[in-house]
Design a protein that fits this description.
Elements (H helix, E strand, L loop, with lengths): L1 H12 L22 H8 L18 E2 L5 E7 L2 H6 L6 H13 L6 E7 L4 E4 L2 E4 L4 H18 L3 E5 L1 H8 L5 H4 L3 E2 L6 E5 L2 H5 L4 H23 L1
Parallel strand pairs: 2-3, 2-6, 6-8
Antiparallel strand pairs: 1-3, 4-5, 7-8
Helix pairs in contact: 4-9
Length: 228
Amino acid sequence: MQDLFILDECIRKGSRSMSPTDGNSAANFMPAQRSLGALRQAAATCRGCDLYKAATQTVFGEGRKRARLMLVGEMAGDKEDLAGKPFVGPAGRLLDEALAAAGIDRKDAYVTNVVKHFKWEPRGRRRLHKKPSRYEINACLPWLEAEIELVKPEVFVCLGATAARALLGADFRVSEMHGRFVESDWARHTMATMHPSAVLRMRDHASRERARKELTVDLAEVARVLGS
């Protein structure tokens, strides 16, 4: 019960010390050598939770080793699971477009997810995204914590509600607080904005265009801080 209390407090405060202290977790698979390459190799054999059983492979982060900007989504999708790379599907293309419109080159960023395996449920021949549980998020967090420790980003952006609530607190509301820099232990400047996949799920064209514009405006604020 004490460990659960610690997790609750860390999530509420947006603190670095969020990974489980015992039991099954990615912490048990951490390599002795801490480099992005070593982490990626070790994560490929992670059994910190059961998501690896249905996933094709681990989808680790990628990007510049000392990127000033880190973008963190929820978890890999169907296309990412097959490719082994983050944000390469439709949501990734939309993210690339929004970054370019905001004046940010994705090659200058480090892109990753809170959860490194694809969680899904079958729907006919399709594999539909299923939201990761709190336990699965907590079990996977040591990988993200290690990535942050090595990259040391100046600007940290949570993409979507799951990442924002996991990293900035359970009460965080992206719909109300997107585009604002908030205080956290993750980086000097921390923000949350809409996940590109949420934009794609909008029911009509007008809503999608409005959400796309909001995402671009938020990322333009990130670009402003990076350029200051």
